[in-house]
């Protein structure tokens, strides 16, 4: 039986990997009215009546796309013993974690030689500069098998603590309206800042905002929660690039309109000393034991990351987990998840399961990732602050929809996503515990789906569906405002918005 399962999974993996790098359509393209691609590769953004534009999503992932992922030298090599290798792997991680950082911020790579490593509980990686590397992300490469009979991640990668406001650095934003897409804010006093400062753009929520969104009117059922203002305060991490008078320029754009009538935004400097960085997970195959197709007591995430920045996961595959191949927590920032696969999830097919590639952090990139048997395959959680990007990814045998899953994600680009299911950006109403509006400034660009619903919230911005191959659906509620739709069943120019924005910035 197990050999038939392995053969089936290998065939699926090969099929998916054969599409890992989708060749962008070079045929007839049509210009979008929102973004124009010039002959020299530059881009022009068309503002709406309030000045909102589609944001620049190019500064996501490892160092915002400005550095290539390095090949870090191996400092420790281990081989599978054929028995329980929990202690062997953990000791190697701990040993390299105690090495000094080099001048580039790395300690070195641990190589797990090809073979099967069985472990009984989660591995922990809690230090900067450590690379965990295998010799291939197939069952014939480096395979780590979690035998636990309870829900847990196979690999937990995390720093500690939370961001801390630096006292005396807080100032109000004085703009009457801050449109989506802008890279500048006018503040009451910019003298306390300089270029290079890390700042938090803090956007408070108010009762009036929730009332205007109608998120205090969610039709109730058992467990439904109406939105509360103190639960929707949003914190966007940014870096100051320059200052002109009291105008502060930031590296990444504002991804939802901000209006003083819904709470005056502020900025302040912050520090996060215990967040780790320069971690890499690569060339590994993660597998969970399971007792049946609907089993719940087994490995839940292959990789769970939080309190981490400027790191990567590439060329990994997972099989038989109940929740995700990769889940990024809310304090994970500037992470690249590349060329990875989530195969054959095992769980009951219902809520809270099979979120194949799940992002709760900000400034993260998921590129060339592929799934089978997932539910919400490329998905964000509650109150996710963008920009974030899912690019060039596919989902097969999916059991639910792709998109912002619940509770106001802001600033996500779904670019060249291909699914045999749905892509939805909508008011989810009383789904779950009362999800409501799933997000704003959600861009669906040249995607392919069975059907899609893309609607805009009552206030605070728009959502966009450009170049969809598939059918337009009415979504959960037919009376919600329509999103911005154009070029149905055509290919919008540029063929990839993310790649065009990255190239335009690096010209």
Description of the molecule:
- There is one protein chain.
- Among the domains are: 78-162 and 272-321 and 336-341, no CATH class; 164-270, Elongation Factor Tu (Ef-tu), domain 3 (Beta Barrel), CATH 2.40.30.
- The chain is mainly beta and 507 residues long.
- 9% of the residues lie in helices and 38% in strands.
- The N and C termini lie far apart (54 Å).
- The protein has a ten-stranded parallel beta sheet with strand order 7-10-20-22-25-28-30-32-34-36.
- Mean pLDDT is 94; it is low at 1-26.
- It comes from Hydrobacter penzbergensis.
- This is Pectate lyase superfamily protein.
Salient structural properties:
507 residues, mainly beta, Elongation Factor Tu (Ef-tu), domain 3, 10-stranded parallel β-sheet, 7-stranded antiparallel β-sheet, 4 helices, disordered N terminus, Pectin_lyas_fold, Pectin_lyase_fold/virulence, Pectate lyase superfamily protein
